[in-house]
């Protein structure tokens, strides 16, 4: 594994990790994290892909994980910065190396929501999303919906006012996030069309015009997103080449996967090879 620093077009350093296979490289993969998740969480999965011949790049958005410099309350950054600047910088870096080989974007949750906003996303061979949905609070999974209204209308505004950032680790929810990120995400989750319904028309147009092949993987036991969240986001992608598959844990002899569980190392022998390898370059 190589750890590198990548500088974005606006001069912000991002820490990336490269997992380089010992064998001939089949393709290049970028793994984009969920909201509040550090790239270190995906290391087992990235290593597994590397062992199968894929050059994998992981990264942390500005202010997150290894890309964070200083205190979060000093970060004036939002989700659009993460998508349009940070993700675009990572993709540009990988495209220079990939040449004629295929490049894949695998996005977990947020990483699979924002890809239409990335510069040159049409140059990737395929986008694979895992547990990605709109986040619209009225469509959240039942167990989350019971309490999320309190979270968005009372907890979040109060904590942002007191701390100047979102101290998610203190309350065991999402993770620590910059204030503008949380404010923007709250607005998105208040709208049935998520970011497309909140931001300017150019955002809607980018979603409608995206034409890259898309394979979306949903988890039947996702404790955060319901099927309405998943299908709601899926319908916003304008691509004519898109497929949505829902994974039932019991079909793989698994008791529980959940919103964050897909990337756990325990699934290296069953879930990962059976659900993803056929979407990448065949062995």
Would you kindly provide a written description of the structure presented here, covering whatever features stand out?
The structure is a single chain. Helix 1 (43-51) links the parallel strand 3 (27-32) and strand 4. It contains eleven helices and ten strands. The strands form two sheets. The chain has an eight-stranded mixed β-sheet with strand order 1-2-4-3-5-6-9-10. A two-stranded antiparallel ribbon has the order 7-8. The two termini are 22 Å apart. It has 283 residues and is α/β, with parallel strands linked by helices. Helices cover 36% and strands 19% of the residues.
Helix/strand order, N-terminal first:
EEEHEHEHEHEHEHHHEHEHH
Structural class, from helix and strand content?
alpha/beta
User: How much helix, percentage-wise, in residues?
Assistant: 25-40%
Q: Give the spatial strand order of the biggest sheet.
A: 1-2-4-3-5-6-9-10
What is the number of E strands? 10
Gyration radius from CA atoms, angstroms: 18 Å
Overall, the morphology is globular
Low-confidence segments, given as residue ranges, are: none
Q: Work out the strand percent.
A: 15-25%
Assembly annotation: single chain
Mean pLDDT over all positions: 95
Total helical elements:
11
